[in-house]
């Protein structure tokens, strides 16, 4: 899901719409995040290791998906061309059994996380390039 930082032992969790709205409203108010780190046009959709976040930019036609390294990087890194390419990568990877959906032991009762099958990382990268080049 994060092509340059792929590790099968790290979890990724998508935010519910309710959680995304909550994060959006609260992160800008947090004292650690000013305009240098967070932009009001960013809308969070997933979290990675509680240190990184995927977000879409609200006013761009193509809806690119970016990775934001919380408090570490001033500049975000574009990860997916748009939401459609992200969903296409995820769907195809699920078809090939690359991603495993498992319960989140640290989360709420119904929270699920995604793990990547370590033996299939090259295929995941191939699928990613297919939809993002």
Question: How would you describe this protein?
Answer:
This protein is α+β, with helices and mostly antiparallel strands. It has a domain at 8-82 and 99-115. It contains three helices and seven strands. Helix 2 packs antiparallel against helix 3 (121-132). It is globular, with a radius of gyration of 15 Å. It starts with 11 loop residues before the first strand and ends with a helix.
Short description:
It is built from three helices and seven strands, in the order βαββββαββα. The chain has helices spanning 17-27, 83-95, 121-132; strands at 12-14, 42-48, 52-57, 65-69, 77-80, 99-103, 112-116. A hairpin with a 3-residue loop joins β2 and β3 (52-57).
Identify low-pLDDT runs: 3-8
> Helices and strands: which structural class?
alpha+beta
Give the DSSP E fraction (strand runs of 2 or more residues). 25-35%
Helix and strand pattern = EHEEEEHEEH
